[in-house]
Specification:
The chain is mainly alpha-helical. The protein has helices spanning 26-29, 41-76, 86-115, 119-127, 130-145, 154-157; strands at 8-11, 19-23, 35-38. A 3-stranded antiparallel sheet has the order 1-2-3, with helices on one face.
């Protein structure tokens, strides 16, 4: 199997009923061998927690975007809108940055813990681009949960005009 192929499911040969997936981190971290990840309850919980935090961040971002769209719609309709409160705007921006920082830490911690990365590879993970790290985390999530993520369309999010 090529190092760049999708994760695979393998039954352990020890006779136990534990299932594992093998994750390729060659492209992302330069790890030459596939990394086995147990499909344990612990790893499943870690994955669910990561997914819930990711979803929470997406919900908060969608709410911010909707608030901006609603305000713009009022302006476009000629309705009077209250002036933007600068302090509130700064606080909202700060909350957004805090959310992003917390998610970034959650994401790197998730990858580090589930793959049992050494300090050398943790440093390589820290040097990755944010969106590449996110893609790698989602690859791991898909493998552990035996799913395939698809990009949501605007109508799937309820955002279609």
């Amino acid at each position: 199997m090529s190092q760049n192929e999708a994760p695979t499911r393998n039954k352990k040969t020890t006779g136990e009923n534990n299932m594992t997936v093998k994750i390729s981190a060659k492209k992302e971290l330069g790890v030459s061998k596939l990394i086995p990840v147990k499909e344990s309850n612990k790893n499943f919980r870690r994955t669910l927690d990561f997914q819930k935090q990711f979803l929470r961040l997406q919900i908060e971002e969608a709410k911010r975007e909707q608030k901006g769209r609603d305000r713009q719609a009022k302006i476009d309709a000629g309705e009077e809108v209250e002036p933007i409160d600068e302090l509130e705007q700064y606080e909202e921006m700060n909350k957004q940055y805090e959310d992003m920082e917390a998610f970034q830490k959650l994401m790197t911690d998730y990858i580090t813990d589930i793959l049992h990365l050494s300090d050398e590879y943790v440093e390589k993970l820290d040097d990755m681009e944010f969106y590449k790290t996110q893609e790698f985390a989602m690859t791991i999530v898909e493998a552990v949960m035996n799913t395939k993520a698809t990009e949501a369309k605007p109508e799937d999010k309820g955002l279609e005009d």
